[in-house]
């Protein structure tokens, strides 16, 4: 089951990559010779009409319950590598299958390029929970000068290579727990994982992020695997990915009419926010108590944790960055790691080569900072 699902996702990703590559190779030379004065008016950008889009999302329509990648692939086949999705209850979207177009757009938008953000997240932060977020939007959904201010402030904290050493011991512990989980659940005969192994990988990803962003051992690979808090957090993160796409990328009816899925997403964002706030406060309290009691380890005494540094700058920033870690890190890391593990499992020769390289670097040793 897991193999079939991952193969389908990988095939879709390959199809999208092929379209990107083909369209990019055909348009590169043309782009170099076209000036801004020669650009066609926006009205000539091809794409479906509003009626066609409404009909496509209705029961029996070609995009009803269709995965996003299939919809975009179908539109590109109909209208070419650059097409427009008309607004029904929101803002028009122009999509390009040429990666070079993104660089062109951002380099010509001035100091603060605008990225279309998740309007549902923006509503949540500014309308539903302003007491938590204040004037900050975060790195994932922010724009303009406010985004630039936060990025400038947190870059020196987040991008220092030495910070990785702070969490090596904790992340090795998380990896050991994951390996122990694998030994426990794999089939003793076939050595294969159960169909729900993706959930164990999800727990690994969230546990790792929690170690860095929240200074907390959540226990998702062990004692707290089935706790109510863990289940609520994982369900909320899934809602963010699935409902966020439906509400932000599809017609924004929620802006004008009550939509149950919008209310569900708001509750899920509440869950994630409260989870981060609770664990950050607990972690900071532990840090303060350890400092007073002189219990800080030598490693942590030499270099403050990311959470501690961010909280010194602003506690709101610490909460927002922790949430950004969960939003931006959980699902992409999950998909990437699942794909890597599947590829290794299906290619034993590559798996053996990887093991050989690991043994050369770590001959019978545990991972250490000097590796």
UniProtKB/TrEMBL annotation:
GO-annotated cellular components: membrane
Top-level taxon of origin: Eukaryota
Location(s), subcellular: Membrane
Cofactor(s) the record lists: heme
Signal peptide limits: none
Keyword Phosphoprotein found: no
Gene3D superfamilies membership: Cytochrome P450
Keywords: Heme, Iron, Membrane, Metal-binding, Monooxygenase, Oxidoreductase
Pfam families (UniProt xref): p450 (PF00067)
GO molecular function term, any single one: monooxygenase activity
PANTHER family hit by this protein: CYTOCHROME P450
Similarity remark: Belongs to the cytochrome P450 family.
Name under which the protein is recorded: GL23701
Species the sequence originates in: Drosophila persimilis (Fruit fly)
Lineage: Eukaryota, Metazoa, Ecdysozoa, Arthropoda, Hexapoda
Encoding gene (name): Dper\GL23701
